[in-house]
Amino acid sequence: MRHVVLVVVLLLASLTAPAAAAVPGGLWFDDSPVVVADGAFRDGHGREVVLRGFNVSGTAKLAEHRGLPFASTADARSAAVALRRLTGANAVRFLVTWAWVEPEPRRIDHGYLDRVAEQVTAFSDQGVRVYVDFHQDLYSRHLFNRDSWYTGDGAPEWVVRAGGYPRESCGICVHWGQNMKNNNAVTAAVHDFWHNRELTTSAGPIRVRDEFLHQAGEVMRHLKSALTPEAFRLVVGVDPLNEPYAGRYDPGQDGVSWERDLLVPFYRQFRQRMDEVGWADKPAFVEPLVFWNQNVDFFAEPGGFPAVPSLGPRFVFNAHFYDGKAQSGLLKPGKAGDGEYAADFGRIRDRAAALGTAGIVSEFGHPVAGFTSDKNPSVLKAMYQALDSRLPGAGWWAGAAGSGPVLSGSQWHWDVNYGRHHELMNDNPDKVRTEGDAMNDEHFSAVRLDDGGDPVLMVDGRVVDRLFPRAVAGRTAAFAYEDRARDGGAVLSWNRVPDTMPAVRALVGTGRFGVLVWRGNGVAAPTELHLPSSFPLASTTVVSDLGAVTGPPAYTGGEPVAVAPEPGVAGVHRLLLSTRDTGVHFALVTEAAPTGPADAARAELAAWVAATFR
Question: What is the reported pTM?
């Protein structure tokens, strides 16, 4: 069946005339629409696509810039350019919030949505794909007292006022997330949402979940109208609701039955609304119960849609993952190691496959400052390793046939306002938050502005600006990247080339390297890998069944191995590998120039591929 689906995808691609690139200077295969087909994201040319980037941004959860990620469109544009230049990201998850969409019952703020469209366009103008996220944390900031230790975002004030919820209190909580289970105001409001409680408002009786769906439809309708066709083409889809949970379960209910009976029907209603307002060709990025893959046992609950037989290609299985043990500092006192999250991310791959769709990790990360931030280099490295492959580095070469698909992901988060906020927490002028993310004492942003106003990374650039397969002309059989991340003075090297491949070991030496193996599907568009901006083009070496090249030539259209600049951003390049057949192909890419001919390394790789991927 999967081969039939793929043939259909390729046929459609062959019948579709290439659209003009959304970014000036783009190539003929750039910027085509992305859909889900054959269990993967695929572009209009039939290539498997990996979406990598960041959430933009936590500032949208604050009142400071009235629910927008950036203070202005100019700031958004500067952030988008920096995102491309510093990380090579090709996608962002863009946050919007119900409270700012519908500040009064049945009144949509189209001015707010115009500014959302402008800031989305700042990213699409850079060739960055966007998926919109209807964000909430702890249901609403309006549930919280002016002097509360915590705050939230999501539902408008009029919803909370009409709900008449009890005074909020989390009791003895050490993390804001505990409010999801311990704060009676939060649990009551969330429970009402899922049971579509009727509220008495100034506009008359309104059912709360129905109203959420109404405003979401208006957001999508407005964006389709306000964005240019080129920008809308780069909108990949929409996340209906961030981090869903029940609030409290009904008698006899658990996470699995709640997903089946309440969450999935809501997603199907949302999907219908997408179809009605012109988003029928874009998938819904649906999240399971937020607690389903917690690695802190006493907080975890069953979920992940095990009682749902299928989602299919009009949905994406969309999970989050944070290492709660590492953030606690007590449950995991040490650093993350090789293969630390292989099983956790493997479960995400497995659930996506079982549900008949693609998977994505739309939030992951670790604090960049404060308590436990010393773990950041190892935790981030291990998370990206798990996105790239099912396997730890130590076992990758021997087990590469089981490496699995490369997962898409969006790190939390890209906030150029980090450390420069001016947020009145819960509208309290005596609690002005300026430090970090200005939200529940978090410090997650991968970027900040230096004293000169220029964006600089808060994390190791080797980890976030990494080699990855942006588009594969076929299906990825295996991928791994050794980034040689820095943890203080130590170099974290987890993928060791085996002794049986001495020429390959000598070639990569102590440099960064990646290996991609893929099965072609005969399409004309090339396989693309993002090249980290710190890879010197003159010494970058590619050893492939297509040839061995140091300092690949510029792409003109006929080269089997070539490089091309990313349009619009100086110093960012991609490697292009052209095949147009259905065979098995391989490419090793390293930043190190060989000290001698690469023929021996090529022969070792060819023998390994022949033995491993029969």
Answer: 0.95
